[in-house]
Amino acid sequence: MLQDHITVQNRHRDFIKKICETGIIYALKDEKGYATSYSTEIEYEDGESVQIICFWSDAARAKSCIENEWKHYEPSLISLNEFVENWCLGMNNDGLLAGTNFDNHLFGYEAEPLELILDIISELKASGKSLELRKFENIEDMENKVREVLEN
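Below the sequence we write its predicted structure tokens.
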């Protein structure tokens, strides 16, 4: 079990690193929407598992999950700035989690969307990169506003 936890953590770190390098995130999409799963760790107040929207750092990983209930899905690209400004903020508002680099057994990292934004910002800063944002002045502005929300 510890090995699985370490593997999932490493895949999450790889996800952050790669999406910050490429500026691209992959999701699986069909005519009804995006590929989702359910948390094995977090539940809503009513006892239902929290829903997760799954994302990958490369097309090959995403394609490896196109089977069983996701067999009709196709990889869909999302830009990094759209991901942090629209997807992560939207998932936070909707009470959803982000799943990163899930494997074909639907096993992966479950991230709180605002924490995921902070992880991405941290990696961007560490690599000397920035992000062109529409809803925020810059990544520092976004980071400050996300931290304010998390503190309240």
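The longest strand covers residues 36-43.
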